[in-house]
Amino acid sequence: MSLAQNRPKTEAATAGMEAAAQDRAWEPLIVAFCCNWCSYAGGDLAGTSRMQYPSNIKVIRVPCSSRMNPLFILRAFQRGADGVLVAGCHPGDCHYSTGNYLVRRRLSAFKRLIEFAGLEPERFEVRWISSSEGDKFSEVMREMTAAIKALGPNGKLRDGRWRKIT
Amino acid sequence: MPRVGVFICWCGTNIAGTVDIETVVETARNFPGVVHTADYRYLCSEIGQDLIKEAIKNEKLEQVVVGTCSPRMHESTFRKAVAEAGLNPFLLEVANLREHCSWVHQDKTEATAKAIALLRAAAAKAVLNAPLIAPRLDVEKRALVIGGGIAGIQAALDIAEAGYPVDVVEREPSIGGRMAQLEKTFPTLDCAACILTPKMVEAAQHPQINLLTYSEVEEVKGFVGQFDVKIRQKARAIDATKCTGCGVCYEKCPTKTESEFEMGLAKRKAIYVPFPQAVPNVPVIDRDNCLYFRKGRCRICEKECPPQAVYFEQQDQILERRYGAIVVATGFDQLNPVEYGEYAYGQHPDVLTSLEFERFFNAAGPTGGKVVRLSDGKPPRNVVFIQCVGSRDKARGMNYCSKICCMFTAKQAILLKEKVPEARSYVFYIDVRTAGKGYEEFQRRAAEQYGVAYLRGQVGKVFPDGDRLTVKGVDSLSGKTIEIQADMVVLAAASVARGDAAQVGRVIGINSDQYHFFNEAHPKLKPVETHTAGIFIAGACQAPKDIPDSVAQASAAAVKAVGLLAKEKLQGEACTARVDQSGCSGCLYCEAVCPYGAISAVQIEEHFRGEKLTRIVAEVNAALCQGCGSCTVACRSGSINLQGYTNAQILAEVDAICL
Fold first, then answer.
1. Which end of chain A has fewer surrounding CB within 10 Å, N or C?
2. Best of B654, B655, B659 to mutate (most A CBs within 10 Å, chain A)
3. B504 pLDDT band (50/70/90 cuts)?
4. Contacts of A86 in chain B (CB under 8 A)
């Protein structure tokens, strides 16, 4: 059985919550946007070092964390993601010199905005993971999965009209 | 809908062991646009690549998706394969099924489900891929070497010998670096100056090398092939074109201060050359100590200088130059062990660091080459060497081995015995590490022929005891506590990154590890490259290193730089930002966030209701754009997009993953 089938149906936000309560096998879906130079490479190192982490995390590669339009994050929540992670180089180490300073400012404002909109702020995190921090990568992935599991399914920003196509 | 082909790699059992390939291929067949699927044991092999090429031709594929290892590993391999089959190389997407899936998950069901999700996202993105053409960029045929120590000198000489001009920027008034401070070098005991100074002179006289001493790099902009660098040439207050290096000025100068070169153990004048063999042999006025700069009087050097070279009004000069490649060789510092209070450093004049102790052996050093106690001027009887001060020290967060200390301690113990035959040396060590050609033999010679007593164990405390020092430690082999009445204690303090290494790394645009040593691009296979193309590292700025290793690494970095400079043109970044001028309002928020100055305003003409209008819009210079995508987020109307990572593509990936 695939993960997608395991996840709650998305008829309505509340239905998802109820399904989760009944279905013990509920697994959260977490979308991680990783910058190509540090965090994606950190993920590669976690792989090379066989550092296990939950398969709930699916990584999307972006050139720089500053490529992250907040709309991408909203789209993920809308389409049913239970958590979103943006990971980039440590401040000061950006491959493009200043990208992660921009993202730090943009996304800290964005985090407050989604909190204002009623979403649990813990569902969205920004982390700095360098290319040599495979251990940190897997650690963040484990932490994030545990945190989202504790929160339960995302029912707030989810678009009830969105259905599976396959 | 373009015709998409999906290819899955088993990677032997690396992917196939945890991911059910058959299920993945079956599922992929139903992805939108997919007309062909295949899997193979090793897709990166020649047969595997041929499989892709054949399919592109036979199935008339327009987009290719591969489910393989990380794109950071083999993306370029598959791009090349796709291009050989006649497709644009950017019509390829990689799903990372190995590093991000099969290697980090054990449950086959979970891993298979994730592999499908990742592949679906890649396919959804691929459908929207457009052919891209990378700009061809010029290469400035000139290299910059930052740091004039042995690594920097070697790199500069190698690049210059290959026929390219090199500028060497050195912060101090002379090149030479740490090696110039050493008396002898292990394991051959040849004198450091005798092998270094010829190289310094060679560098200075080489027609292709331009030494910029007493200078610092202030700004690095641009990218591989075209780095625009700002260099501050600090004012020496000497006209170097007139100075003959006669030395009258520093003989006559009345002001004395501590010599940095002598580690503060001797005095120098306010106008000085750091050491007698300095290259260039042009003095510098230290403005913090010079009487004229401090109080407006004196000017003795100006009066005494035979060629009238003293020039107090000289100002710092900013030099702006373009370089094709940069070699960073900024070297290291020795830890100041004053925080390690148990060793009484700074509390007693006869507790020294090894670099300070090294100066005692030098004929031009603070003691004129005599090994004597600083407290009473008498030669020492018992000298205790303490190893691993600030290295291999987990409790203080300094986990790494400093690498060179075991060897220089053996060397100093031998030199001590030769200078003061009646002296006894004791070395407290954790392990003796002598990996290197002739190193083990050298250290054994110290222990066996020179009678150096090696004591395995750590020193608990050094007590100043009258005019002597009591060293208390434990011999961990016998378990006994040891007490030694020492006349001198020498601390093998850790080699650490330069105090401002993090700041320097930031200016140059390369990153460093937790100890601020600069990071290489790959710990094994790219030892001199950095993550920034065109910038290379050499010597002890990367990790503690001895002279042979530094020189080898410098030559390696030089070859890499020369390989780059030898290219006619470089291939630029293909995934660049592009402005849709019809939607652009000309607010230029994008220009403000661009770190490369790649965006500028242009005036365009438009015809509107029979009228000719002009308006301002943004334009991207594809040669300068590096493809970070910051601008796309700043754009309020969504009129600027990043090719290869368009808004539509990323949203398609999100949708596909959230299915």
1. N
2. B654
3. very high
4. none
